[in-house]
Design brief:
441 residues; alpha/beta; 4-stranded parallel sheet; 21 helices; 8 strands; 51% helix; 7% strand; binds iron/sulfur cluster
């Protein structure tokens, strides 16, 4: 058996309709097989806390092998995985088509799906219901009360003891001016399709932009307007399904897919580029849904039409259809590439755009910050999430930046929190907002 694979990695579709997918004894057998390969390899020891948990279990077992670890302890490893995909993407030489067929994140997902069916905490169901939570919290008076409570020590103590949301985790504010209710309509520019990307855009705004940081969405629209790209905000959207996916609630993912895909597939069919400003949501349409529905024409059409915003801008630049006159230098920018952008296999498009701005020095940090969507919010994982992020916080603080940015707004908040006093006057800003600032619009 050769060490590592020479072919390009592939990913098998998720066999989630097969009853065996949910068979606990089968999954424990597969966990044992893969854990044994990982124990002999240990390349991923510093990626997250899932691997150290596994190796500690093996090292403490009577046999010093995986066969000495109790099956019920396998689940401790599963709990530590937040499905960032980095082990699959950056480390593992045994991913398919290698015959050992190691897809650690998708095995964790299968185990999480079994756990979900057995019942999960109310807290986990609530945190993953981003759309429902957003709708409720964005009601004007409720938004102000939620935001005030998020900053109130007593209320946070209650939130921690009742719901298990760590009291020290800085939470995003809710807006009472939802993006989808208050956006500027596009002016009617002629559609200029390029060789690499379509000349009209449909925006899937995402729950986060709609309910938490609408400014990012408005910045994206301003950038399109400035570059004379006509846009629409998609007629109807639900959560992309990523929070439910990470919880293993695949039936909920299916329900959300039934809402989103027919709408988005129509835009794809009409020749729109679909932009989603949050990397995890983009990844859901580019990778996870197509792996769940490999034979569904709508899902595949959407996959082909979806772009990360900076991927889109760089392609427009390549087509000679992007304005490149910038008025405002940005100074020093510490920029973090989130895992879910890296998994999209598109190269460092945001860095490329930021570096094209004169008077801008970009320090790029390409390492997991350890938050994930909801994992780092939970009381039992908060400390580990800050620990995983520590090297990122340090590297981001080193150049004494003017701006701290990440494509993932949740990671950016976590990084800014972790940098603490070291960041001093560094301003947290999304790359879309920075690009808008640089254009002076
Ligand atoms: S997917 Fe991410 S969190 Fe999960 S085991 Fe791999 S590196 Fe760790
Ligand atoms: S996931 Fe792959 S690279 Fe990582 S420890 Fe396991 S076998 Fe090694």
């Amino acid at each position: 058996m050769r060490e590592g694979s020479l072919e390009a990695p592939t990913r098998h579709p998720l066999d989630w309709h097969n009853p065996e997918f949910y068979d606990q004894s089968k999954v424990e057998q597969e966990l044992g097989r893969v854990f044994d390969i990982c124990h002999g390899c240990r390349r991923c020891v510093n990626l997250c806390t899932a691997f150290p948990t596994l190796f500690d279990l093996v090292d403490a077992s009577s046999t010093l092998e995986v066969d000495g670890v109790r099956k019920q302890d396998y689940w401790k490893v599963v709990d530590q995985c937040y499905l960032c995909d980095m082990c699959y993407m950056t480390k593992c030489p045994y991913v398919p088509p290698h015959p050992w067929n190691v897809d650690f994140p998708h095995l964790m997902l299968r185990a999480k799906a079994i756990k979900f069916r057995k019942g999960v905490k109310l807290r986990d169901r609530l945190l993953s219901a981003t759309d429902a939570l957003g709708k409720l919290a964005a009601i004007p008076v409720v938004a102000q009360s939620v935001n005030a409570a998020n900053k109130n020590g007593f209320a946070r103590g209650v939130l921690q003891s009742v719901l298990g949301v760590h009291r020290d985790r800085e939470l995003p504010p809710y807006t009472s001016r939802k993006f989808r209710s208050y956006f500027e309509e596009s002016r009617s520019f002629p559609v200029k399709d390029g060789k690499h990307a379509p000349g009209k855009v449909a925006i899937f705004s995402t729950c986060y932009v709609n309910y938490n940081e609408p400014g990012m969405g408005h910045d994206l629209l301003a950038l399109l307007e400035h570059n004379e790209v006509p846009y629409v905000v998609v007629a109807k959207e639900a959560c992309c399904g990523m929070p439910k996916f990470e919880l293993g609630d695949l039936e909920a993912v299916d329900r959300l897919k039934q809402v989103n895909i027919p709408v988005l597939a129509k835009y794809a069919g009409e020749g729109y580029a679909i932009l989603t400003p949050v990397p995890s949501c983009t990844l859901m349409f580019k990778q996870e849904l197509p792996l769940m529905y490999p034979d569904d024409a709508g899902t595949i059409a959407v996959r082909e039409a979806v772009f990360d915003p900076f991927e889109y801008f760089v392609l427009r630049k390549k087509d000679g259809l992007l304005k490149t006159e910038f008025r405002t230098p940005l100074g020093k920018v510490s920029y973090h590439i989130p895992c879910h952008s890296r998994v999209q296999n598109m190269g460092q498009k945001t860095r490329e755009m930021l570096e094209a701005i004169p008077g801008t020095a970009v320090t790029t940090v390409e390492r997991c910050a350890g938050h994930d969507g909801t994992w780092g919010v939970k009381s039992e994982y908060f400390a580990n999430s800050m620990k995983i992020g520590r090297p990122v916080f340090r590297q981001m603080a080193e150049p004494h930046p003017d701006y701290v940015a990440s494509d993932c707004p949740i990671a950016a908040r976590h990084i800014r929190q972790g940098m603490g006093d070291e960041a001093q006057s560094a301003v947290k800003s999304h790359p879309l907002s920075l690009l808008r600032k640089a254009y002076g619009i």
